Amino acid sequence: MISPLILITLGLAVAAAVLGGLVVRDRRTRAETMAAGPKRILFPFAGHALSRRALDAALRLALAEHATLVPVFLARVPLQLPLDAPLPRQCTEGLPLLETIEQRAAALGVPVDSRVDRGRNLRHAMREAIAHERFDRVVVAAGDGFDSGDVAWLLDHAPGEVVIIRPAGEARGHRPQPLSA
Domain range holding 32? Predict the structure, then answer.
């Protein structure tokens, strides 16, 4: 005959094991969702500086939606060069900015999948980015390399949502301080 104390102990052990398994499974599912980030937010930029407001907005959205941030440096290739030509000067400007974005995202726990896309001009590079990347939303800084024509083109051609951030101070007639590497 089994003593009641042994039965109670066995029952508690089984309950703890089941509960522990559920907690581990829930944590693993949540971690996989955060790491894989079923949603993706495209953050294209060009030039030698980033808009702090646009980056902060993209990071807040990625954090709130458990999304992966996809920063894309848009490199412009002059017509006299082949499209796949090395661009050392542009890379010395763009890659430190990608590193800055990755560090800011890592501090918040936002997964990042960085890219570099090339084109003859900003719009051509953006066309390449939206043609080859999977994303749910685009966050772009108006006035940070993107003029009103580029923003209008993006609204007409980009699938998904387009979030346009005008840098602070631009409405008052002065350029804001950019976030540099």
Answer: 1-36
